[in-house]
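Revision sheet: structure tokens.
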Amino acid sequence: MTAHTRIVFLDAQGKKFFGEGPCRLLRGVAETGSLHSAAASMDMAYTKALRLLKHAEQALGYPLTQRTAGGKHGGGSQLTPQGKEWLERYEAYRDACVQANRQLYREFYGEEP
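Predicted:
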């Protein structure tokens, strides 16, 4: 038996706008400098990745990435300062929730999940 912690943020209409998928996508953008590469590494269509980001940005009220269109010198994406802060806070909150879940599991069931 195991217990699993999953953190999901919902917008004002109760629709999911951020969780592990968008988190991995943003982490990929931070690492590769490319939304296209980050999406491809997740086997996700670029259009879906863009849709996820736009929905999250709309729900949060600020941009998570700054995108530059391709051209002679290529394009790219990078996290905005707010996007970087959001990602770091989400990951810290998620990790704290996982740790709290482990502790609660031990208290209630007396074993490691």
